[in-house]
Amino acid sequence: MSLGALIMRFRTRGEGFCLLNDIAISAHYLIKNQLSKKVLVVDLDVHQGNGTAEIFKDEEAVFTFSMHGAANYPLHKEKSDLDVPLPDKVGDEFYIKTLKEYLPRLIDRVMPDFIIYQCGVDVLSTDKLGRLGLSIQGCRDRDRIVLETAYQHGLPIMCCMGGGYSEKIGHIIEAHANTYRLAQDIFF
């Protein structure tokens, strides 16, 4: 696969607010340069990681996991290696329980040596486009689970700051800043 094929959100086009697929470019670079043998994409943005799923549908070295709003954009979902569609308005407790159910088993099953984490904050209840119901604390708990899992398994992780469309920009900033604060606390 050429780098040019990865520059667009899909192999042939951009979509939504995404013209470039930073996850695909990064995973491709890691694999091509033999810096990783198995990349686990943990996509917890409210929207399915459809472009990433399509790009890596035939690539054994990249496992795509997307936990997203079932009824949210895009209406046509691609097939990730593992999709976990969530109902509208799902709150902290159900979301965190579901993530804890899947992530540890994925680490054991996939045996990645690198994680790329799409940590969009459009999962917040205040998000205009998201349709899920996480609080800022729930979003922080989500990040802690992913970051601590990577740390406990000695796995390097790259975080991609995805969507966030709350009317109060402070909610977006606080949720994104929590990701950095947690990474600082956990890894350093």
From TrEMBL:
Output the superkingdom of the source species: Bacteria
Q: Which InterPro entries match?
A: HDAC_classIV, HDACs, His_deacetylse_dom, His_deacetylse_dom_sf, Ureohydrolase_dom_sf
Histone deacetylase domain boundaries: 11-171
Alphabetized UniProt keyword annotations: Hydrolase
Pfam families, per the entry: Hist_deacetyl
Q: Which intervals of the chain form a coiled coil?
A: none
Q: Which family does this protein fall into?
A: Belongs to the histone deacetylase family.
This protein is called what? Answer: Histone deacetylase domain-containing protein
